[in-house]
Structures are given as C-alpha cells and as structure tokens.
Amino acid sequence: MSEAPPETSGNLAVESRAAFAAWVREAPGGRRFAQVLIRRQAPDGYVLCHVDDAGADDLKVYEDPRAARELSKLTEKGEYRPLKSSPNLRRGWQLRVPDDGGLATAMNYLYPAAVVHWHLYREDRLEITHYRQNAARQSGIYKRVQRLSDKGVQNAARACCEDAVCLKKTLWDVDEQLPLEMSRGEGEIPCPEPCSIFVSFARQVRLFEREEKRDLDEIGLSRSEKEDLTTLVRAAATGEMGFTREAEFEEPLNERRLRYRNLTLVPKIAPEAGEG
Amino acid sequence: MKALVIVGHGSHLNEDSSLPVYEHAERIRETGGYDEVVECFWKEEPSMRHVLETVESDEVYVVPAFISEGYFTQQVIPREFGLEGPVTKKGSKTVHYAGPLGTFEKMADVILERIEDLMRDKDVSEGRTALVLLGHGTAMNKNSSGVIYLNAERIRARGGYDLVVEAFLDQDPEVGEVVGSVEAENVILIPVFIAEGWHTRETIPEDLGLTGEVTRRGDRTIFYGAPVGTHPSMAGLIAARARELEGQVVGSAS
A171, A223, A162, A218: which is closest to A192 by C-alpha? Predict the structure, then answer.
C-alpha cells in the first residue's frame, strides 16, 4: 500500500521561514547550517557563504536569492551535484539577500525543503517515513528495493548516508521495530525519509544481494565484486584513480559503492582487518 | 495565494534534465499570475513528496513537465503527491493536478515554433519536405507513443509539409528506418522530448550519423532540431495548462 505524504498546514512555510530567520538573527556570529554560514546583515538582510569562507574577503558577491540554485549545482571541480546535502558545496561566493523571504528562497535552493524539516523537527512534529514504508510504494525499476534484506538496508544506509557523503541527520529506520545501526550525523538538517538517491543505491545493493545467492566463485566472490576489485587495482596502477559521478552506482569506482564494498567485501577477504 | 508547482523528471547524473523546468519557472515568475512558482522533481530535490511543505499558498496548481500520458503522470506523480484526482484537498491546501503537456492542444504550436527556429536562415533544397516527429516510445506503454501520433495528426491537419511522419527510439517505426526511407529531399527531425540529454545529444546523432543541425547526405538534407521541451514557449504552455485548472472543485472530472 502507498502512504500519503505529510499533510501541510497553510502557514507551515511561513512559520518555518520566520523560525529559521529568528534562529539566525539571535546568534551574533551567525549560524552554520550544513555547509552554509548565515549571518545577519543590517537592516533586514542576511549574508550567506560557505562555512570555510567565513573570513575570506575575495568572494564573488551575488544578490539574487535564486543565484543559490547555480551556486549549489556543481562542485568545486564542476561536477553535477544530484544531492544538495552532500558535503561538496563549492566555495568562493557570498550571497546577500534582502529579507526573510530571500533567505527562504536561497535556502530552498541550497538545501531543498531543509528549513521546513528543521523547523518541524525542532517542534517534534516531523513525520518520519521508514525504509519499508518508502519501499512499499516504489514501482517500476525500483520495485525490487522491496526485497532488499534488513542487513542490506543497514549497509546501504551506512554507505550512502553517513556524514562523509551526506550531511543530513538520518532519522528513518529500517522499519519501526528495527533501527538503523549507523552514525546518524551531526548536522542540522533532518532526513525524514529515504531520498531518491538512496532508493537508487538500494536498488544497486539489491542487485548485489541477488548475486550473493547464486553467482559466487570458489573463494566466495561475486562477479561484480571481482569487477570492482579489478577496476580499482587497474585505476590505482595506472594513476587514474578517481570517483565516478556521485550517483553512478553501476560503476565500480563510485564512492558510495566502494563504501559499501568496504563494509561487505573487505570483511569477506580479510576478516581480521575489521572495518576500515 | 496561488502557487504553480512544475514537476520535472530530473536526473541523478546530469544537470540538463531539470534545466528547462527551472527556465520555464523563471519565465512564468516574470510574466506573473502566481504568488509562487516552485520546481520539484522525481530524481532531484525538492521531491514531490516534500515540496508542498515549502509552499505558502493554499491554491496549488501542479503541472507535470512531461510529454506523454503514462507511468509518471498517471502513477508516480499522483502517488508521490498523495493526489486523489484532478482536485485534492490536503490540509488547508487545494491541489489541482493537470495532465501531461503533450496532449494539450497548444503543443502543436510549440512544435511548429521549434521548427521555425530551426529552419530560420537554412537553405532548403528543392523537392519535398518531410517532418519527422520523434518520440521515445516504449513497448511497455501504448500511451507513450499516442502523444506523437496525436501531434503529428494535428500538424498534418494544418498542412505545410509534404509528409508528417512519426518515429521512435524504442519502438517501431524506428527513427533510423524512418529517416532513411522517408521520401523527401528535406527531412526535419524534431525530438518531442522535454530536455536535452543522452538521447538528444548522443544516441540520436550517433545512430543517424548527424553532424549538427544540418546534415547533407546524398540528395537528402536532414535538419535536426533541439528538443521541443526546451523551447521558451513551453513556459506559456505550462501556464496555460495551469490556467485551465482554475475553477475545478473537489470531485470534478478531469
């Protein structure tokens, strides 16, 4: 069965915008929100920049709140960012917005829907959709995520959602009875439901699980595990090491995929190594 | 207050997919009519699931930036938004839901504008001119191709081309065969897609051996247009689609 998305009250957007602006205003040094530092600027405005650019004086200045969309689109290296809460926001910019409305617009491009979830979480009103509920409504090529094992969900979440790759605080669990065993993150942005990146990753992990059932060689490695190892060794040997695109999970050198291998393949071939 | 929410497919891999949605939203913001114009996506953020939480307005018009009636417009989008029909009451919000863009009457005008842009200042050889409307198509869903046939028929009825033919990537008639066999000296090939992407930039030109907007091959010239969905006048189509929904009440038919 499919579950309805959270109900919204008419003024939730207004309420959360005001609460967020007040939270920023009451902190003399500004507030850090994921990788953005927000400081008050008299009379009613705000200045936003990358947290690591707090003291920089050579930043490129933008004044349209919607410039935040372009600023959050690509990484420092020019790669597309499909997940805005990945810790790869580029630096070198300063965004000056005139008022609370401008701040809300900018924040919704930098971290979509994050301010409203931050507000609901602080008020203890944020509705959580656990993995199994989310999976139950998937269809088409994503329907197979319904068959992902509990262990698969656990490992996928650790590979895909920890602070090293996503700054949101993971609040959902496998289901109501089975909590995720992971570091849920220290960030300000709550994550109430598996996102589309996670569902796509879960689909890939489910494909790995299917291999585990039938395609293992004499030392217990699956075809894709060997492919990943081979590609990794080759890349390192030729000096061409580099991650593939962030959500290109079918490629061996994808960061989240390698994080998953670190959790599942490394213990298989070197049980004494523990988790690295 | 009134909000227009434009729903795009979006992509985990490239920025091209969502770009037209952002651009059309910006155009509609400039022309006015809505207190808020908001973008959301299937594969990008904000998700359809959570976008309404960020919308201030109580009157919400949801328009999918999708060409065809099918899996997304009939199943995924209503499910993710929690819609019950053309009009859904959600808390204090009334959410109106439009069908896809491709079936809308004005779609043929946008296609013709796209052709006009492509053919401006181009040398057309003497002889017949064929228009090939290219859809993705899929053997999985008949509706996917229906919109191509529908618009081909509309343009045929208006005249202007010796031939108007349909072609697809993933079903018959296959585009390579159509472009290779259509009896015309000039072939205008228009992808009826919503955004630039892997198909429009790579697979189609490669499979057909196209060298750019104009490819001359023997006595035939192929003119290859940008996708219909990136044309600026799509913004007008989206706005018109939303306007059509005004006045609908809960329980009304689509």
Answer: A171
